[in-house]
Specification:
201 residues; mainly alpha; two-stranded parallel sheet; 6 helices; 4% strand; rod-shaped
Length: 201
Amino acid sequence: EAENEDERKQMANAHATNLLKYAKDLHRKEYSKIETAPDFTVMFIASESAFRLAIEGKPDLMERAMEFNVVITTPATLLALLRTVAYAWNQERLAKEARTIQKTGKDLYDALMILKSNYDSLGTKLKSTVDAYNKFGGTLDRNVAPKVRRLKDSGLPVTAEFEDSNMIDADIKELNAVDFRELPNRALISDEDESEANLES
């Protein structure tokens, strides 16, 4: 409706200035600080012709709006932008899940290492206890048993025999990497397979 080209340019510039002011207002609302929001705000212009007129008034309108983290879109570009944001959100979700799985895996690994260390430590203590038990029994058999038997043979009124000590054969199994690798395969054996194996044996 402008009467001449100069008036049209002035109106286009005023239109672009208003849009830029609105972009500043959107920036002040700080929508991007919402936890689930992207780090920019979308300003939608419903008319392609209105957008083209604003670009005529300020060719750098898009860049200047971006200085306020505002992205100007039109019906032609909105859907593409929304799909891009949805894709980015999906990738971020997958990355977050991957980080969670990685942390859980590390925690499990650390727990298994502690468990393995405790297992080895317990085995060492058990072996030490068994060795002490057998050593004590050996001392009984060598130093005490002969004297007790001589007492019985000398006519002491007893009937029970003084038997040799029972030694313990300590076979402490040490875990190794092969054992851990075999665990998943063992877990795949079903109860039905185990039942069949027991029947065959």
